């Protein structure tokens, strides 16, 4: 009974900055329950997409090393892997006309964990699940962190 319908969707996170890649991965796995694989650039992402057939969504930064940026990766994914959803993110670049294929989305940095989770759920056609995210780090006086349901 090990069908892929019973497993959470796989998301490919493409980010060259290690801490940002880890943060996005943690949000998507720990807070939202997705399975995450990682790539540091578009070339590595394309190799993973060629070898894995379980990726449902690519979450990619725009600026990264290599010949392709996140917008170019989104266009290639659209052409070669039309069933895979794409969310592009950046704190510097904004999409211009023609940068993103139809149906692909942009999430500006910095983004709230809830914004990322909501956009992923929308892209995958899922209903929102309650997600517990600490609003503030705990202090000795407070004890445990305050949690919010999103």
Automatic annotation (TrEMBL):
What PROSITE patterns does the record point to? RESPONSE_REGULATORY (PS50110)
Which GO BP terms apply? phosphorelay signal transduction system
Query: Which UniProt keywords are present, listed alphabetically?
Result: Phosphoprotein, Transcription, Transcription regulation
Tell me the InterPro entries matching this sequence. Answer: Bact_response_regulator, CheY-like_superfamily, Sig_transdc_resp-reg_receiver
Q: Does the record carry RNA-binding as a key word? A: no
Which positions make up the signal peptide?
none
Q: What are the residue boundaries of the Response regulatory domain, all occurrences included?
A: 10-124
Residues annotated as carrying 4-aspartylphosphate in the record are 61
Protein's recorded name: Response regulator
Taxonomic lineage from the root: Bacteria, Pseudomonadati, Pseudomonadota, Alphaproteobacteria, Hyphomicrobiales
